[in-house]
Amino acid sequence: MPPLTYANYLDLEKLLTLQRPRSSPAEHDEMLFIVIHQTYELWFKQLLHEFEKVKRDFSAGDLFGAIHSFKRTRTIMKTLVGQIDILETMTPSSFSSFRDRLDTASGFQSVQFRELEFLLGYKRSSALAHVKPEFPGADRLQRRITERTVIDHFYDFLATRGATIPEELKNRDVTQPNGPDERVQQEILRLYKSSPDVSILFELMTDFDEGLQEWRYRHIKLVERTIGAKYGTGGSPGVPFLKESLFKPIFHDLWAVRHEM
Ligand code: HEM
Q1: What is this structure's pTM?
Q2: Which fold has domain 27-97+109-260?
Q3: Ligand 1: residues within 6 Å at CB?
Q4: Which residue is closest in CA terms to ligand 1's atom 33?
Q5: Domain boundaries, the chain
Q6: pLDDT for position 125
Q7: Nearest residue by C-alpha to atom 20 in ligand 1
Q8: pLDDT per position as a tens digit, 73-114
Q9: Can you give the pLDDT at residue 204?
Q10: Which of 22, 177, 222, 239 could disulfide-pair with 101, CB 3.0 to 4.6 Å?
Q11: pLDDT band at 173; cut points 50, 70, 90
Q12: What is the per-residue DSSP string for the chain?
């Protein structure tokens, strides 16, 4: 057995052959476009890994475990937002020079991004239309639809802190998105006032949520400055379509109580 090295532990030889620009003659910026997207997918993978742990922490009533993970996920989110700056160094004409090579490939088809939305509680069946059954990971996405979300596990956590969670929320149809609930908001408000340690968690969750909305906003601006009013390669009207999910929070109940504090 050869000794473990930096390169073979990380499987670098494989990793570094995975960037394969398609433009010919080669367009300089296509490499950046590929590296950025692959980096995003790796971070999506890490976020999915963290939120699986968060679900377990929540149901076990492990406040500090959840705090620790939310600190990490909101920091990853900041990195995801920051990376857009790098891609914005690519001009519209530079992108146009290889855009045709993308054919109908689009972020629409990112299975992991959808998994993340579904795992968090933002389940939208319309998104499934862009993920064909033969896509790698399509089965994982299907499974996520039938799984309890981070918010469902958050209800478990609130219950461990004495909150009364309505039966209809405990037994809700988990294939549907989580929505706001005034009774949950009252419990959150009570905990904000009575439990400073739990309020740290609530703030970190809000940070993450704000980060995701910030990413959506920055992605739209990136799209707008790079392709303007063009349709997306995935076939959507582009910017107007993306604006539909702008400012939509994941953790509705945490946003809904802020004026009452
Ligand atoms: C030049 C850069 C980019 C352009 C022009 C662009 C353009 C678009 C457009 C037009 C859409 C709407 C769907 C469609 O019709 O194709 C879209 C969706 C999407 N893009 Fe990008 N994008 C860019 C970079 C990125 C990057 C770096 C990521 C990181 C993973 C990303 C992830 C996504 C995701 C996840 C969606 C689906 C969003 C949703 O359904 O809410 N995009 N993109």
Answers
A1: 0.96
A2: Methane Monooxygenase Hydroxylase; Chain G, domain 1 (1.20.58)
A3: 36-37, 40, 87, 95, 106-108, 110, 113, 219, 222-223, 226-227, 232-236, 238, 241-242, 245
A4: 107
A5: 27-97+109-260
A6: 85
A7: 107
A8: 999 999 999 999 999 999 999 999 999 889 889 999 999 999
A9: 98
A10: 22
A11: very high
A12: -PPP-HHHHTTHHHHTT------SSPPTTHHHHHHHHHHHHHHHHHHHHHHHHHHHHHHTT-HHHHHHHHHHHHHHHHHHHHHHHHHTTS-HHHHHHHHGGGTT--GGG-HHHHHHHHHHT---GGGGGGS-TTSTTHHHHHHHHHSPPHHHHHHHHHHHTTPPPPHHHHT--TTSPP---HHHHHHHHHHHHH-HHHHHHHHHHHHHHHHHHHHHHHHHHHHHHHHTTPPPTTSS-SHHHHHTTTT--SSHHHHHTGGG-
